[in-house]
Amino acid sequence: MAEQTDSIGDLSFEDALKRLEAIVQRLEGGEASLDESIKLYGEGDALKQQCEARLQSAQARIERIVAGADGKATGTAPFDGD
Asked: Which superkingdom, per the lineage (predicted)?
């Protein structure tokens, strides 16, 4: 499974999300055997964690524009989630 986890880290956010969607469809379809379902669930969990980490990283980099009293931009401040 370590090899699979390494390849998950190499996926772009969009590719990881597409793979996660495919796993969910496969599991919901009931076509997978029990062993395959367990493997897919593990891969899906790793993909979910990877996507969440990338989203948190992106959010941390977002900055908001700070406007002065005259309405003109005076600089930026870290995103505070509001």
From this structure: Bacteria
